[in-house]
Amino acid sequence: MNKINRIWLLCLTAVLSLSVITACSGNNNTKENTGTAEQSGNATTGAKQDKVTFKIFNGVAGSKDGNTNQTTIGKLLEDQTGVNFKLEFVVGDLNTKIGTMIAANDYPDVLIPDAAIEEVLNAGAFIPLDDLIEQYGPNIKRVYGKSLNQMKAKDGKIYFLPIAAQVNDFIPEPEAGAAFWVQRRVLEEAGYPKIKTLDQYVELITNYRDKHKDENLTGLVSLTHDWRFFATSNPPMHLMGYPNDGNVTVDTSTWEAKTYAGSDATKRWLKELNKLNANGLFDKASFVDNYDQYIAKLTSHKVLGFFDYRWQVDNALNVLKDAARKDPSLDGYNYFPLPITFDENTPDAYLDPPGGLVTNRGIGITVSAKDPVRIIQYFDNMLTEENQTLLSWGIKGETYEVNEEGRYYRTQEQIDKIDETFRESFGFKYYSWNWPMYNATSTLANGNARNVASQPEVFQMTLTEKDKFILEKYGVQTYSQLYAEPISRPYFPAWGFAKEQNSPEQLWEASKDEMTKKYFPKMVMATPDKFDAVWEEYMKEFGKLDTAGYEKWTTEQVKQKVAMANQ
Question: How far apart are CA 518 and CA 465, in angstroms?
């Protein structure tokens, strides 16, 4: 870091200390959280605070365990607050890990339980945050202010902070979101055809595999591990032309929610997988592979296609992208997004529309936390404009620049150096998600995009010549331009509606998930002549669920949120 930037950051730290480090210096529990006698100073008041290390368990796999202060960003935040976090990411089954914590009533200081959040809430593992937010959270109130009432549980208290909130103007992301992905070399060999339907997509992959039988290629893989099974069960929703509302599709003319797990669309999707399997194009290990094995296959150069959400495969896509930057001959192994539907006349809806707050995922402080005040202050400090800039753009002069008009940008040299290794060491990866933050589609107060890739001038510079070439072939400048414009859905997303533990709607989802995990593999792996019999067996079991009750409850939630948005 150059000298000017260090001076700037020291000044910034002093200013930020006004809002984040107060009333804590006498906390007798602080030293229990640290094995060091180091202290962090408040530059304004002269108060000293012991440096502390809190533990976080993150229920979403994807990063290495480690300490935030071992990264550039984490060290700067520790200098501001005196707080470091020791991060542990889930390995193996999430529910087993959370269940062990609940049984022992022993938790890390902070918990990101992801899909197991209802179990954590039901166990009383999170402390109420209302008083902490009121006393120590001016930035939390600023960022989440419009949604604070939505964040309350039935008892009227707030137990966790949703991962992200929309702040200021909405800026669509230029990258793809959900998609049926295909290797670029497949498109190149086919002459860059317009692929609009599932049938066309399957034909594209089949033709390529048949022409390259000596390469031992896999036509399609699908992710089914643990709670990520939705990567296999969600495609019918998108193929019908709906966005990701989880277990339902929502008609915007009536706001009625309907499930699709037992629909003709799901049958059509599974029957296609069954055919792919019968023709040796589907990876049978999809139903037994874990998440890490799935990611490894995507980077092996052997998988021609898959369906998934970009956030879930970002690690794999970035590895392939970095490799192609260093050796352009590897560009064909990069994946290209295709927003396909069942029928050409059905507009796609893969892009998330601007909507409401996701209130069934978040980060909370547990009953085992020894110093909740220091933790909430850290979260609040993260939400300053300066630190939201730090978390996304980094350090001026090192990872971004500012032009005369005040627009943020990155030089080509900066773009080239920010690969996966750099993102890990700098802290971009640790702080990319699962913390309280502005949504990626947010705008900073100065008009710059919060998300670096959403800044048009930056996105265009990140593209390689190969990127520009293939985008030009499809008549677009960004990947998101391949998709239809999203339709306004003020309630969105329906999968984010909070559900009480053991409520009828929560039990419906649990039963449905168990059922699909049991029968979907059977249907895909069956011989084609046995498919219909297994489907009928599945539908017989599915018919025992109170699906009408689940749809009624979800429709009520949708209409309530739409009404609130229209007030």
Answer: 45
- 313/309 Cα distance (integer angstroms): 7
Phi then psi dihedrals of residue 111, to 5 deg: -135, 130
Rounded to a whole number of angstroms, the CA Rg of the chain reads 24
For 485-525, how does the pLDDT look when each residue is reduced to its tens digit (9 = 90+)? 888 898 999 998 888 878 999 999 999 999 999 999 999 99
Residues linked to residue 152 through DSSP beta bridges, in sequence order = 158
Name the token pair of 399.
Answer: 């990872």
Using CA atoms, how far apart are residues 424 and 429, in angstroms rounded to an integer? 5
Beta strands in 326-422 (DSSP E): 335-338, 364-365, 401-402, 408-409
Q: Decide: 469 and 463 in contact? Cβ < 8 Å.
A: no
Give dist(CA 243, CA 494) in Å, integer.
Answer: 10
Query: Which conformational region is residue 475 in: left (phi greater than 0), alpha (psi within -120 to 50 degrees), or beta?
Result: left
CA distance 538 to 122: 31
Burial of 23 (0-12, 13-18, 19+ CB in 10 A): exposed
- 198-211 helix and 264-278 helix, angle to the nearest 10 degrees: 10
What backbone phi and psi angles, to 5 degrees, belong to 51?
A: -75, 140
CA dist., res. 440 & res. 311, Å (int): 12
- The CA distance from 258 to 235, in Å, is 15
d(CA 112, CA 5): 33
pLDDT digits (tens, 9 = 90+) for 444-491: 999 999 999 899 888 888 899 999 999 999 999 999 999 998 888 989
In angstroms, the CA 460 to CA 454 distance is 10
**What pTM, to 2 d.p., does this model score?**
0.73
Residue 545 and residue 511 in contact, taking contact as beta carbons nearer than 8 Å: yes
β-sheet with 110-112: strand ranges across: 66-67, 83-89, 52-58, 110-112, 364-365
The answer to whether 427 touches 73, Cβ cutoff 8 Å, is yes
d(CA 145, CA 322): 39
User: And the tokens for 428?
Assistant: 């971009």
CB 219 within 8 A of CB 304: yes
